[in-house]
């Protein structure tokens, strides 16, 4: 990549001139004309739309993951912001910079060949919803600060909750309620702080060091991060081991034993984080049974359905959330697999008053609206880590409004179908195995271990690590990620990009097979040489 | 407002049909065609751009704050999401809904007559930067997950830090470094957790209940919220009183006395949050002296410059950050007054390793890039509350790239000039007083208290509260907010909307004068009747 010499000019401005102009009180040009002029916005905005549309149309011409080395962009850019842009049309020049220098250095999450991590599924409605939100740029931290924004968030979290068949006790229509945050980390942290404050009110705030949180060894790091932030003692996060014979789901018996042991030791069970669709293998914890155990110990139950929560939109997956009527809080990322673009995490709680007690504020300078007096008004600033917040409801409303619940079901089912097809292809090739039965659109697979004399299980991890590296290094190939569960390294093929079609999945499998054949061929040569 | 009956149709779908279709494995239509088709995106995107441009052009036709009652939108919308949208062009219909039903219920923060709270200043570059970010939709939680996004964030936080004349020790080029978060609440929380973990490593983690944080009675609630979340004992947040004769700045002597008293009582001073530009009156704490006190007690110093940090772009304000070379962390909201649209909070830290120690993770399933091995790579997931994050650097880079540092100075100075003009008008009217000397673009003022026999200071607060209500109720008038400091209620006129011009400020003052004359006239009648 050539150094983007024109990306902006290094020149820190003539401070003296500015100072002189200030002293002279010389009139500056009307600043609004250039910064937020309707006609300029229209002209440049159409450029951006065409830019993004062209990006989607050309998506397949980019390798999913760039071949760049650390520092490639930092070293190419000037050390300082420009004093004044050098070009007449700086915005058009900047768009060229994005095309020539930034896009080639991105990992293209919207590529139909992006199968890594979990999807960040985009849709036209959500992407344009973000554009609309940014254009309108309101800050709905209280009802009064933008009434329609707050009310739309209340409406759309109820809509989504019903579409996912959540119990009404978690929705406004049933006495609970939902909010839209950035990520699951925030959602879990908010729930944990609400739980912690309730518990400390009971047992006395000096005992914060006695509180214990519970999860499985498959739970997302978000729980540990939230526990750390919330001041839970580092030794008091119980990561209960899971096993392959239970599909890596958290065992209620093991949870019960852990809670009992802690209670016996004078500690206080505080918080359970169960998962529907774990990060590594999309395992599903048995929500009803786990909640019963937690309730028996007075602990708060949270369900993290960051990825697989989207699947609940389909009736055939509803049973996975059986028991959700017993949870205290539930979160899922509509930006992962439900077309809502990053970021959009929905959090529902059974008792909003506990959230407000943990996170709320009352201050004189916050405008109260006379109209709001005495009404059942939500001030969302008291439901989250932050006060300032974006109007995320608009894009989620657009997604539900424009595609409908059936449209979302079509979307989820298309990916499930493609993943099933991938899984069948893996099973049909005897060199490979599916390590964990697929439930959603994630397939975890690996090359079977070589014979014991050639390293067996021990060699299998290195072999599959090499396979992933080779697959990801294939120009115009798929991009996948890995998991290591119970000591077993596996490749993860997470179908979920909106642009992915069956041909991309078939082609991805062909690349995996080809790279595997090369690897196994090399091994055979090496082994025969050694022999 | 008419009920938006067409906003979407209540119909929860025919589950049986869907189930049957699944069983039959009937092919659904290619879902990508409708959800992220380049041509459809282009067509609908141009509609959105025109919609937003029209909104800016028509901005003055909206009252800044809507006359709506709680529930106005909730009761008008269907209880469920549509099963399928009823219209042929659902997106165009949705945009009509936004125009007819949502926009009229918003508080228009971009109105040139919005003078409440602090500004949420928009610009074309940032609004379109958000559109671009949403379109590209990458998730740069690690360097490998989108190298150019991480590197651009490193570049642009250095650019911004230099533009604000921050010490190099807070920038990557000087061994520190910056990141872009959502809000100041997150920034303060991240700094506080880093400080807490460092301190607990020293004194033992059992002593979390002994940690004390310090601020003034003017510090934003964000600090108290962060302290609550981080598990600091509720009794251990010292809100040190400020006084009008020190312009409501935190006194280093008072801070020292508070820290000493706590230390003498066996508690542990942990964290100071100093402010440049407080929420109520834009007071500026003396950073250098406060940091010296904090350092003497081994406490972490954070500076919250959420609003006024933007002013540091102008040399004439640099002295306000004197002493910033002694802080451990510094944050400001580029989305408030620096044209970066919500949300964009920059946090810089002197020792990034402490952030990572407090918030970091290492997990097998996170893809490491071979290219990154052994390099000085930032994985921003370890710098914040969240793992998933948006590519915020793109819009901030566009703002700096397209307007340049001088363009930002012009923008800030234009608002400072307008606020100075407003202040002069207040001072020229003997019925009013400026309560706190203006430093930036915020004017705090009130009607002078009536004579003692008519209530004096006590009546003044009610009088000014009524004045604010009357001003805000004026159709096509300005929208302001209030503060109450040292028992004194005052109106706040915060100039900062990008579209605000001098005529809007002049007109706002005329409305204030007119409403005041009416109020004072009514009072005179009442008083003469009573007499």
Automatic annotation (TrEMBL), chains A, B:
Keywords attached to this entry: Decarboxylase, Lyase, Pyridoxal phosphate
Modified residues (N6-(pyridoxal phosphate)lysine): 336
Annotated Pfam families: Pyridoxal_deC
InterPro entries from the UniProt entry: Aromatic_deC (IPR010977), PyrdxlP-dep_de-COase (IPR002129), PyrdxlP-dep_Trfase (IPR015424), PyrdxlP-dep_Trfase_major (IPR015421), PyrdxlP-dep_Trfase_small (IPR015422)
Cofactor(s) this protein requires: pyridoxal 5'-phosphate
GO cellular component: cytoplasm
Keyword Translocase: no
GO-annotated molecular function: carboxy-lyase activity; pyridoxal phosphate binding
Leader sequence segment: none
Protein origin, superkingdom: Eukaryota
Keyword Lyase attached: yes
An individual GO BP term: amino acid metabolic process
Family membership noted in the UniProt record: Belongs to the group II decarboxylase family.
UniProt protein name: Tyrosine decarboxylase
Species of provenance: Panicum hallii var. hallii
